[in-house]
């Protein structure tokens, strides 16, 4: 039996939801769960957060009919969605504290087992502002309409009563998303670096890394769209609130399925701003482009690189910034820097080379060398593009000559 259990099929065959818990405060993506698992068969479960496949030294097994306690944070391992962990995560999102779900896992055509998951406790983001409970409060939170004197049309006016922001939002939510995106990015990089060098056919680590980067990008995009709402809510709340609240009573020792890879950014302390968001957004697009290059999909790599360059500062701004900071500051900067843009230009030029769009690639390589004339990788790809373009032009010339003979 392999280290990572890939499930052919699973389904929740029974569920016992605790009647005293509100269904509105269940487990959600990003929440941490403390659970008790009981299996009918001896089956493996992924333990180490940053270890995958048969190289994982921390593999553990669920012992038959022996309850075992685990904790994990949902959504931090999208590459394991077809494993036992993925099946458990899906089941947990249907439960409240004190509830259980029985998961039937089909291991092969002729064998299956059952895993009972009991939710002992979980953490969840702070609740949004509560839904109004009466007509008077509902009316306070509704926008009002007034006549536009110039056009005579009805336009929305801001109410001076009730919630000043007129939104249901928590300032802590973007901080949680940012921390989760940081962990997913770190996991993706670890998976990518675990890929065997020189083995172009083993794409499993690359695909797994791309899944992590993609999920992180979704969270970053959400933060970017909601950042203005968060800042407005922060002005109203004035005091910084805790990111999460915990439900249920958790006792005893729990095996952490996330291993040593906790949040690389503390959500209680992180300050999410536009500069930090753009840095992570740019980095994720760049890494996803590299995955597409490794997978032999240069057109998608070009698309991702182009998206990244659209949010980068102008070249003259990058050059000026690189002259103002020393090496230590540049390495740990919060914003997009010159080195980041160099990588993306190199990757897009390499993708253009594979697509035989040599002139576009030469343009990127020249731009790269204008930013950093000492970039050896840029010099190499420029030479390859120029040689390929000359060979292509010579071939076309011979074909044209034959056509008119």
Automatic annotation (TrEMBL):
Q: Which InterPro entries does the entry mention?
A: FKBP4/5/8-like (IPR050754), TPR-like_helical_dom_sf (IPR011990), TPR_rpt (IPR019734)
| SUPFAM superfamilies membership | TPR-like
First and last residues of every TPR repeat:
342-375
**Keyword list, A-Z:** Isomerase, TPR repeat
Q: Where is the composition biased (Polar residues)?
A: 156-165
Q: Which Gene3D superfamilies match?
A: Tetratricopeptide repeat domain
Q: Region labeled Disordered — which residues?
A: 133-165
The UniProt entry's coiled-coil ranges are: none
PROSITE patterns per UniProt: TPR
Q: Tell me the superkingdom of the source.
A: Eukaryota
In terms of SMART domains, this protein maps to: TPR
**UniProt GO molecular function:** isomerase activity
Q: What is this protein called?
A: Peptidyl prolyl cis trans isomerase FKBP5
**Where does this protein come from, organism-wise?**
Echinococcus multilocularis (Fox tapeworm)
């Amino acid at each position: 039996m392999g280290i990572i259990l890939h499930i052919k099929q699973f389904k929740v065959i029974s569920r016992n939801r605790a009647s005293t818990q509100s269904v509105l405060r269940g487990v959600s993506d990003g929440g941490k769960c403390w659970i008790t698992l009981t299996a009918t068969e001896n089956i493996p479960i992924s333990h180490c957060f940053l270890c995958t496949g048969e190289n994982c030294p921390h593999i553990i097994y669920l012992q038959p009919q022996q309850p075992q306690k685990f904790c994990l944070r949902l959504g931090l391992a999208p590459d394991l969605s077809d494993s036992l962990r993925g099946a458990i995560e899906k089941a947990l999102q249907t439960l409240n504290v004190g509830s259980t779900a029985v998961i039937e896992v089909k291991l092969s055509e002729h064998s299956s087992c059952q895993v009972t998951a009991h939710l002992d406790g979980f953490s969840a983001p702070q609740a949004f502002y509560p839904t109004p409970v009466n007509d008077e409060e509902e009316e306070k939170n509704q926008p009002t309409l007034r006549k536009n004197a110039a056009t005579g049309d009805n336009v929305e006016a801001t109410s001076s009563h009730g919630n000043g922001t007129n939104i249901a939002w928590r300032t802590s939510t973007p901080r949680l998303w940012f921390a989760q995106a940081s962990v997913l990015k770190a996991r993706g990089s670890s998976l990518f670096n675990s890929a065997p060098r020189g083995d172009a056919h083993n794409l499993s680590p690359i695909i797994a890394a791309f899944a992590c980067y993609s999920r992180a990008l979704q969270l970053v995009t959400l933060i970017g769209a909601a950042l203005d709402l968060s800042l407005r809510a922060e002005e109203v709340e004035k005091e910084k609130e805790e990111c999460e609240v915990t439900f249920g009573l958790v006792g005893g020792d729990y095996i952490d399925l996330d291993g040593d890879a906790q949040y690389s950014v503390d959500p209680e302390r992180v300050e999410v701003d536009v500069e930090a968001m753009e840095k992570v957004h740019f980095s994720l697009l760049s890494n996803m482009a590299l995955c597409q290059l490794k997978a032999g999909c240069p057109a998608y790599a070009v698309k991702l690189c182009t998206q990244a360059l659209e949010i980068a500062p102008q070249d003259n701004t990058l050059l000026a910034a690189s002259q103002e900071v020393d090496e230590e500051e540049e390495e740990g900067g919060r914003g997009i820097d010159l080195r980041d843009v160099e990588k993306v230009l190199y990757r897009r030029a390499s993708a253009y080379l594979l697509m035989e769009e040599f002139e576009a690639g030469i343009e990127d390589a020249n731009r790269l060398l204008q930013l950093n004339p000492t970039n050896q990788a840029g010099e190499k790809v420029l030479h390859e593009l120029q040689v390929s373009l000359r060979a292509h032009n010579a071939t076309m010339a011979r074909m044209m000559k034959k056509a008119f003979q």
